[in-house]
């Protein structure tokens, strides 16, 4: 319950600042629902030892099948009016195919940010011409919505539906959830957006500060 009140307090503070500078803000009546969605995700990664054992395989990055590519995406808050998105595409050997770092205007809800990161990852995949892919992020709420058969009726549902429509253009697409430890490369790229004035794309390369995490993931790959 303390986490719920803390998040609601942050949302009220964020809305006040957004209104002051003329930015988009979340309607007051939706703050509670947004906080409940956030709390659901928070609790999903705070499960006890039994659940931890069941998903322990997702604590580190795993390569895709030989014929496919894995696209990891991440998002982070930068300041009161901006956020960063990070995307990295890798093959079954853990080699970087392409990567992206982008700064965007901060959306009104935290879940919106993760959904936007996923949509950008799918669009980036289409832009670089990959067709058989696994999309992976550390927001279990977003991944579950993408996997669901029914329409997404949440406040960020339109972003999920756009992401689904984009992924339908791919030959093969699936979604995977990982813990934050398994998403370090994408998270690092998202944080790098703080210093960017325009989107940065690296083909068959990545920013030097994210390279250490790529090498670490490769070192942990199964033989």
Flag low-confidence runs. 44-57
Do you know the CATH topology of the largest domain? Nucleotidyltransferase, domain 5
Number of domains: 2
CATH superfamily (homologous) name of the largest domain: Ribonuclease H-like superfamily/Ribonuclease H
Shape: globular
Q: Would you identify the CATH architecture of the largest domain?
A: 2-Layer Sandwich
Mean of all residue-level pLDDT scores:
82
Instruction: Describe the sheet with the most strands.
Output: 6 strands, mixed
Task: Work out the helix count.
Answer: 8
Relative strand content: 15-25%
Q: Taking strands numbered 1, 2, ... along the chain, how are they ordered across the largest sheet?
A: 5-4-1-2-3-6
What's the total count of β strands?
Answer: 6
Report, as a whole number of angstroms, the end-to-end distance.
44 Å
Helix proportion: 40-55%
| Order of secondary-structure elements | HHHEEEHEHHEHEH
Class computed from helices, strands and strand pairing: alpha/beta
């Amino acid at each position: 319950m303390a986490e719920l009140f803390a998040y609601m307090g942050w949302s009220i503070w964020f809305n006040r600042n957004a209104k002051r500078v003329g930015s988009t803000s979340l309607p007051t009546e939706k703050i509670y629902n947004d906080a409940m969605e956030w709390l659901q995700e928070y609790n999903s990664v705070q499960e006890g030892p039994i659940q931890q054992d069941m998903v322990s395989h997702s604590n580190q990055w795993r390569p895709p099948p030989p014929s496919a590519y894995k696209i990891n995406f991440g998002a982070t808050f930068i300041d009161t009016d901006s956020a960063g998105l990070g995307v990295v595409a890798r093959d079954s050997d853990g080699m970087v195919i392409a990567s992206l770092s982008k700064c965007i205007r901060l959306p009104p809800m935290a879940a919106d940010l993760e959904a936007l990161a996923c949509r950008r990852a799918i669009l980036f995949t289409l832009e670089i011409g990959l067709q058989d892919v696994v999309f992976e992020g550390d927001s279990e709420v977003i991944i579950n919505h993408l996997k669901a058969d029914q329409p997404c009726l949440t406040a960020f549902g339109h972003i999920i539906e756009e992401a689904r429509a984009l992924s339908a253009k791919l030959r093969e697409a699936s979604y995977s959830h990982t813990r934050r430890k398994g998403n370090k490369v994408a998270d690092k790229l998202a944080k790098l957006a703080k210093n960017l004035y325009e989107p940065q794309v690296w083909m068959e390369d990545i920013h030097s500060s994210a390279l250490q995490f790529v090498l670490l993931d490769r070192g942990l790959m199964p033989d």
